[in-house]
Design goal:
This protein is mainly β. The protein has one domain. Helices cover 1% and strands 46% of the residues. The strands form 3 sheets. An 11-stranded parallel barrel has the order 8-10-13-16-19-22-23-20-17-14-11. Strands 1-36 form a two-stranded parallel sheet. A hairpin with a 2-residue loop joins β34 and β35. The longest helix is centred in the N-terminal third of the chain and has 4 residues. The N terminus and C terminus are likely disordered.
């Protein structure tokens, strides 16, 4: 099912024709630690040199001839996580120990390591430190139940680490309606709510229960380790600039999106990146939603949701991904006005099981490229794309049979798909077949 978001169709070309039915040859660069989501120059009849991780461009659509988005966004995954982000234990040799008590709020105003223990009701741990301060909160058997306020509220700091101590079991929950905060320019609606960068790590278990959102970051949210069980009426994990996950074990049940990144102020941000981890996701809306982009480089995913994975630019490089969806399985749709809409599978094992009705397994409001990996689809409509579609490599099985080209299910029925259609990709040197266009 198509979702056309807020913006006009964005077109990108490495070397492309923009008129309906014209053949195009595109290029795709190899995977590296640097990721670029590249948009086309205004003159799409020319060519553009691809960046380190930029995917194939060249979308054409008869329904919209507008061309926009000339910026290029790059993600250096090699430097995304710092050494301290990835450290799963805290140095507690000079730590302060805090034992929570009913109705006694705690304010942390200085850099340092703080070990939190005990069980209490109506307690908020507020971090209000200098903007250069790094604060580490170590949960070691901490259980906080609040009626209307976050358990952890980061008002100011450079970065806050929430670390689960080895072998510990911790529970943070809000059971009622979140109260309106008079000293904030946004709703304080997460059990863990951070206005600055927040990192979750550790070797213990954290359960988060919420009547609104589970974990919210108004900057970057990073998770590098630990075990998390999140039950939220809205989003499970929400970041404004990004949600980046290096590792961890996640069991998320969400009334909206399980993992969500969105920045309405700067549409070049709002991305989800996953390097590794184990994910069990049940979500009423999206399993993973990155309005700017979603990139998956590894991990194991069992996603049961309305839509499995959604973003403007969706790239899957590796991982074992299972999606059961009632709307679209994996969807590239125009949530951002900065990047082209493109769905690109370069590796991994991707399985998509679709429900009955007007549903698409792989749905791109722009381009759809399968360059490698194993893709298994059980669906009435396996592929739906508005731009270019090409099967350049890998193994694709649809309803039990291997296919060698993409069939486009636009306009309510299968149309001509693409075989090849790009050179320089993982399989290299394959030239295109026909494409179904609106």
């Amino acid at each position: 099912m198509k979702r056309f978001g807020m913006a006009i169709v964005l077109c990108a070309a490495l070397s492309a024709g923009v008129f309906t039915g014209c053949a195009a040859t595109t290029t795709s660069s190899a995977t590296s630690s640097s990721t670029s989501f590249a948009s086309a120059p205004a003159d799409v009849s020319g060519s553009m040199q691809s960046s380190a991780m930029s995917g194939p461009g060249g979308m054409s659509s008869a329904s919209t001839q507008a061309v926009s988005g000339t910026q290029e966004w790059s993600l250096d995954t090699a430097g995304l996580f710092t050494d301290r982000d990835l450290e799963q234990t805290a140095d507690t040799s000079s730590a302060k120990t805090i034992t929570v008590s009913d109705g006694q709020d705690i304010t942390i105003s200085e850099e340092g390591v703080y070990v939190v223990k005990g069980t209490a009701k109506d307690v908020t741990i507020t971090v209000e430190a200098d903007d250069s301060a790094k604060v580490q909160i170590v949960l070691d058997g901490a259980n906080i139940t609040n009626s209307d306020a976050p358990a952890i509220y980061v008002k100011s700091a450079d970065k806050v680490f929430v670390t689960t101590a080895s072998g510990s079991t911790n529970t943070l929950e809000v059971t009622g309606t979140f109260a309106t905060s008079e000293d904030s320019d946004s709703n304080i609606d997460g059990v863990i709510f951070a206005k600055d960068d927040i990192v979750l790590n550790g070797q213990g278990t954290l359960t988060v229960n919420s009547t609104e959102n589970g974990i919210v970051g108004k900057d970057d949210v990073k998770v590098t380790g630990g075990t998390y069980k999140i039950n939220a009426s809205n989003h499970g994990i929400q970041g404004k600039d990004s949600v980046a996950i290096a590792n961890g074990t996640f069991d998320i049940t969400a009334g909206k999106d399980a993992i969500h990144a969105e920045n309405s102020d700067d549409q070049s941000l709002g991305y989800v990146y996953v390097a590794d981890g184990s994910f069990t996701i049940n979500a009423d809306s999206d399993g993973i939603a990155g309005y700017a982009a979603v990139q998956i480089d590894g991990g194991t995913f069992a996603i049961n949701s309305g839509e499995g994975i959604e973003g403007t630019f969706v790239r899957i490089n590796d991982g074992k991904i299972g999606v059961t969806a009632t709307d679209d399985g994996i969807n590239s749709t125009m949530k951002s006005s900065v990047y082209i809409a493109q769905l690109e599978i370069n590796g991994g094992e991707v399985t998509v099981e679709m429900g009955q009705g007007d549903t698409d397994a792989l749905d791109a409001n722009g381009n759809l490229y399968i360059n490698g990996g194993t893709v298994t689809i059980n669906a009435q409509s396996p592929f739906d794309y508005d731009g270019q579609g090409a099967l350049n490599g890998g193994t694709v099985i649809v309803n039990g049979e291997q296919v060698t080209q993409l069939t486009n299910s636009m306009m309510g029925g299968p149309q001509g798909g693409g075989q090849g259609g790009m050179s320089g990709g993982p399989q290299g040197g394959m030239s295109g077949g026909s494409r179904g266009m609106r």
